[in-house]
Amino acid sequence: MRENTVLDPTIKNLIDNLPHPFLLVNEQGEIVLWNKEAQIKFGYTAEEIIGFPVPFVEQSQISINEMLFQQLLKKPEPMDIGYHTYVAKSSERILCKSLLNVWKIEETPYLAMSLILSDSSTSESTFEEELSYLRSGLEDSFMMLSVDNEGLITSANTNFLKQSKWTPKRILGKTFWQMFPQTDVGTKQADKIWESLKNGRTWHGEVEQITKDGQPYWVELSALPISQHSTAPTNYLLLENDITDKKTLQHRLEKIAYIDQETGLMNRFRLEQLVNKMIEESQHFTFVFLSIDKFYSLKEIYDDKAEAVLVMEFTNRMKMYFQDSIMARVSVNDFVVLTPLGEWFIQGFLSYLKQHPIYLDNTSTPLTISGGITKFPEDQNTFSNLFKASNTVIQKIQSEGGDSIASLSKDDHKSLSTRSVIERRLLIALNQKDLHVLYQPQRDLSTDGVTTVEALVRWEDSEIGIVPPDILIPIAEETGLINQIGNFMLEKACEQAVEWSKAGHKIRVSVNTSIREFRDKNMADTIRKILDKTNCPADLLQIEITEKFALEAEAETSIVKQMKQLQVEGVKFSLDDFGTGYASFRYMQLLPLEEFKIDKSFISSVTYQDKTRALVEGMIQFGKSLQLRVVAEGVETDEQEMMLRQAGCDAIQGYYISRPTSASEIEKYFKA
Ligand code: C2E
Ligand code: MG
Ligand code: MG
Known about the structure:
By secondary structure, this protein is an alpha+beta fold. The chain folds into four domains: about 10-130, Beta-Lactamase (2-Layer Sandwich), CATH 3.30.450; about 140-250, Beta-Lactamase; about 260-410, Alpha-Beta Plaits (2-Layer Sandwich); about 420-670, Alpha-Beta Barrel (TIM Barrel). The protein has 28 helices and 26 strands. The strands form five sheets. The protein has an eight-stranded mixed beta barrel, surrounded by six helices. Strands 2-1-5-4-3 form a five-stranded antiparallel beta sheet. Strand 14 (about 360) and strand 15 (about 365) form a beta hairpin. Ligand C2E binds near residues 485, 489, 512, 514 and 654.
């Protein structure tokens, strides 16, 4: 219906000359009359706007629908619905007080809207006005939905409509539940939110929603009950922020946490989980550890790309030979097969490899392997012992030239599982303070200076020789001696930080810790005492935890509490070996972390493996989105440094800068 058929020309003239914007809207929500002042204030001409839905009011504020008409019909005098923001053609937001009433013309109801502009220069802003501004700000940055007492949607703003693909008309009257995936999980989630709203409580969290055509997207949702005149809630406001990108990355990280990117085999972390499960279920199996011989000299003869081909070709042969067995890659050149097959079959893999040589640069490469066979439950009965026993065989074979697969004798197994030697010697070492500390610097990529060094434990025993941390730490953890090692390291690190600080170098020392140390309810206290005793400022100490630790800390509130207390006092926390465990978004938010360190296994192939590169870039972005400092570990070449610099990594650590070395040696890296 056109305006001129609606109104008497005299009335129309009168309306046109009203000193404030005025418009008439029909029941379909289309504008049928638009006065001069409205044209001036909002920038739309009558021709542009008549016959179209009201384009300039934020959808979540007023929705013109039958309900509103019915409500207004019952009232003879204009209804003041308070301040609302309207969007002009120029996108300017204009705050107006809105007076509404219904005019009946030839039995058809029309909504008459008088918009009184707020004059902020003269009147003091009222509380109501301020609320409107606030709401207008929210409209700008959030997706917004209003829901009535029955769970029916009464309005939705433009941001929401854009994301959810609903049209304004279609969404009104739909239920709140229809916004969630139509699955058990989706409905339960919606029910939970609804229940909390009904009880007058706000709900905040991450939820999955679906668009009109069923496409999932993730939002961070705050749902608030709104009560008028402090009665029970009468309607609800949902504020949402799209976090789909973050979620997608998180899911990718969680998935890759289980697989080795280069070969697609499962990684060590996943293998450990699986083996533990098989042990729990008392399944019998043989643990076969396979290591490519002379891998590092092969690497030197050929280039990095050839190394990748070698690994892939080897993986393919392993898959062909062992077929349905479980296979994992546990380090660059080490693999594990879990199989029910017998020893003679496993050893047959050596001749299979000879019959199917690998070609690099068109020449067949003499690839041999060493393998260790350990049986569960006959030989060993824990993951770490199966691993160690097989490893011991391999070391023995490799020292004799490699190219063989064997198992340990009964006696070997026995001495290996007793561990009494190491334990006994470790006690002496702790007593005599035979442990010592090496430091490895991190290069800050923004300044090229060194501000942080990592403290690494070293033990060389007069009887058993060098015991690397990878062997020492698990034994210390199992025997409880880890607390003493931890305290020793913390004390040394703090003393060293103070010494450097006195010499004018403000260097933070980063100390590795095990979950076992934090299980101690007095850990925070112990650290505080060490800081006091050594006179070390808390902000010179950083503590590294691993992902496994994080997983457990999530469940143990006392651990998180202690960490948070220490953080308040200035101690920093770093997540070590990121990507090798279960990279969960949840604990990354829960724990007071300042940084994470991308594990060296990713860095080793970052320059020639596109997938790994994309992954590392993703991790760096991920860190940035959480405002965490990102450090790359195990950087060995300038190409790796360059790539990491380009990707925006904050700092790097690795042999490329320096091997772990003594405190005095490391000072040369500090800027004067
Ligand atoms: P981490 O904390 O990830 O330490 C980094 C390890 O990578 C160190 O091995 C370091 O020597 C090595 N590394 C550094 N740069 C490179 C590189 O460019 N290439 C390669 N291939 N390796 C590099 P390290 O000292 O043998 O320590 C092994 C692990 O033992 C540490 O891994 C840490 O988890 C644990 N550890 C070391 N000291 C302590 C300690 O005092 N307490 C506890 N709880 N754990 C410790
Ligand atoms: Mg570390
Ligand atoms: Mg690490």
